[in-house]
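To the team - pyridoxal-5'-phosphate complex, inputs and output below.
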Amino acid sequence: MPFIDLASQYQALKPRIAERMQRVLDHGQYIMGPEVAELEGQLTAFTGARHCITVASGTEALLIALMAQGVKPGDEVITTPFTFAATAEVIVLLGAVPVFVDIEPDTCNLDGSQVEARITPRTRAIMPVSLYGQVADMAPLNDIATRHGLTVIEDAAQSFGATYQGRRSGALSTFGCTSFFPSKPLGCYGDGGAIFTSDDALAQACREIRVHGQSARYTHTRVGVGGRMDTLQCAVVLAKLERFGWELQRRAEIGARYAALLAGSGVQLLAVRPDRDCVWGQYTVFVDGRADVQARLQAQGIPTAVHYPKPLHRQPAYAAFSGDGHFPHSDAASERVMSLPMSADLTEAQQDRVAQTLRQALA
Ligand SMILES: *Cc1c(COP(=O)(O)O)cnc(C)c1O
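Output:
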């Protein structure tokens, strides 16, 4: 059983993907071809953000958003230590300082109630992560940011398609950044990502930074990066978007079914708040004795993963930013989280087998 079933998705979309890719090969505009603007148009319509800027990866999206905001050496950005390294990496790359705030123990998302106490005169931005596909609690974070003149950048790499108070992930704050890494809820066949914003000036800044800071050809108004998304990868996402509505529905159904099948099994489910839904970028549960449980599942051919085994304040590259190092919920989660096979093409039979084997492993 695959952990993420990209093969079935490909079989379902094969003619559409072939057609879309062939069109790019025929017109030959491999960089910034028409599919780039077409995808950006579809994604703005989908999210409700005014602008979408496709970029080379989710990491590049976060980096370019911070650059557009003018984050500079010595600035501070408040974020979570319980995330993929890219979230903090881009902050450090700009010479800024990630200031970690612990997570809510039941959702694993940034605990907004602890944010205000960490704001200093150097704070420039708050970067919540919508982990596992559930949007972080954006409304209080936006309120805090407004009061203190800060920017909120949602790391929506795992949550594309999710909603919060009826609105889409990515379009909930000044910037939303997502990833089209193949295993994300909406993936391409390589690296890709997108920035969403409804601020015209910031969108223009992102567009310029994406192409080496050019405001016109060979006019480098600012320092930028080579951060474009390939036309071919945009074509792949366009083909996948045709099925994405169905996939979101399947993800919701599979998530609800996992919850029902695992009730009373001894695993603790991730809490999903009533004002939002989760696209289950990962279907993650909390379990005691995780290494044993994983080994028992593996012995029955069921793959699992851990997102993430070591929070950033315990990573060699980021330990210097750990402050007092007191992030008990992140530490506890890193020892107990376990992700189960999840994708829109997971069959009920496969899901039954996962749940049954997990129940046996826990018995
Ligand atoms: C995947 C991921 C990223 C990075 O995205 P890439 O496209 O791989 O660069 C950033 N943050 C989080 C939370 C992610 O899961």
